[in-house]
């Protein structure tokens, strides 16, 4: 995976496991934001549970991390 800093444009290459260990708090922030956004939609709150939302977050991990997270780093490619 290639990640890039939004401010300095510094690039780093790391595995997905390394990324999840180093950015665990940023991933959790993005996941919480994703939950809040999805649960505010009436059709989603009625039909999905929290476990299903976690798998949906993982399915589109790159997009969700980049758009729901508040990190200086973003995933350029997986």
For the termini, the CA-CA separation is 4 Å
Task: Determine the fraction of residues in helical runs and give it as a percent range.
Answer: 55-70%
Largest pleated sheet: 3 strands, antiparallel
State the low-pLDDT regions, or none: none
* Mean pLDDT reading: 88
| Number of E-type strands | 3
- In DSSP terms (H or I, runs of 4 or more residues), the helix count works out at 5
Helix/strand class: alpha+beta
N-to-C series of helices and strands: EEHHHHHE
Outline type: elongated
Question: If you compute it from the alpha carbons, what radius of gyration comes out, rounded to the nearest whole angstrom?
Answer: 13 Å
Strand content: 15-25%
**Spatial strand order of the main sheet:** 2-1-3
């Amino acid at each position: 995976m290639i990640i890039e800093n939004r401010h300095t444009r510094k690039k780093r290459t790391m595995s997905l496991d390394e990324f999840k260990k180093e950015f665990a708090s940023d991933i959790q922030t993005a996941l919480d934001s994703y939950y809040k956004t999805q649960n505010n939609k009436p059709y989603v709150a009625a039909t999905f549970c929290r476990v299903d939302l976690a798998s949906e977050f993982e399915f589109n991990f790159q997009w969700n991390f980049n758009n729901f997270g508040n990190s200086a780093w973003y995933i350029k490619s997986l």
